[in-house]
Amino acid sequence: ETEMRINFIVDFIIVLHHDSHSEEAKNFNSSTWSFLQQARMHARAGLPIFDAHCHLQDPRIVNALPSLLEAATRTGVKWFAVNGTSEDDWEEVKKLSEQHNEIIPCFGLHPWYVERRSNQWFERLRSMLEGVPTAAVGEAGLDKGARGKEISIAVQVDVLKQQLMLAKELQRPISLHCVRAFGELQETLKELGPFPHGAILHSFLGSAEMVQPLAKQGAFFSFSGFLTALSAKKAKKMLQEVPLDRILIETDAPDAVPKVEPSSLMWVPGDANAPAQLSDAGKVEDISSQALNHPANIKTVLTYVASMKGIEEDTVASAAYRNAKQLFTYPGSKIRA
């Protein structure tokens, strides 16, 4: 009932803003809109949420992190799995996890950066993971897309295998990136698996036919705003194959802005590419490809996954949170017991 009342008030103000040409309407600035967004998000907070994959250490948003965490927490987010991508940002991820208890650190070598690795990268990765018992592994993976196709897939596979075996040895989950390389990924997981402590396929956009074979190797399927760019037909077919005990949700913030009406989203303060005012943000096409994703937008992802799967939002929320807690509970974990 509270949510309905707040949403009614917000929607009423939005209509007045669009329809009025008064000076008051003209002064409806971005700070006012941000307040209304947060009011709506706060009203929607219910079951706890676990952001299974994000990059809050990203230089584009790290200076705004306190306000981003506060807003996301108000929507119900309890934990953030923050993934490092190379030797350059592991220490920053570690520092953030020490400053914010809700951040679970993850250290890994992303396929985009394998050519920049040092000769000691694997020893450094092992040292980080052994020295930070709260940490999981990631982001690792394979990429044959626009950015990854210039990097030897054989080298990518070799680097991935080392990280998979390390995660298995340390009995921790590993978060995996995969773009146009599912054949190689499936072969690799089959060769080295299964992975009883979990292989998280983040921002999963694979086919329905891939789900069961990957699940047999210990895969979990994590969905971000990128799912909203997939055709509804493909998304529904694939999600029907994903069992509730294998589903996760994430933001991949500051990337993966959901392709939904901009007025339903929260925006990173100071983002020059975000819709500045409601009048500039009426359609999906109005969202710039350079806009930053706010971690509070995980609620939108949750709603979309539930709608595509055809089940209650609370059911998806409960399952995703339970699955993530199980994955990120290991000796030394912040959320142990």
Automatic annotation (TrEMBL):
A divalent metal cation 1 binds at H53, H55, E139, D252. GO terms for molecular function: hydrolase activity, acting on ester bonds; metal ion binding. A divalent metal cation 2 binds at H177, H202. Keywords: Metal-binding. The keyword Nucleus does not apply. SUPFAM superfamilies: Metallo-dependent hydrolases. CDD domains: TatD_DNAse. PANTHER family: OS04G0577500 PROTEIN (PTHR47176:SF1), OSJNBA0020J04.13 PROTEIN (PTHR47176). It comes from the Eukaryota. This is TatD related DNase. It comes from Adiantum capillus-veneris (Maidenhair fern). Pfam families: TatD_DNase (PF01026).
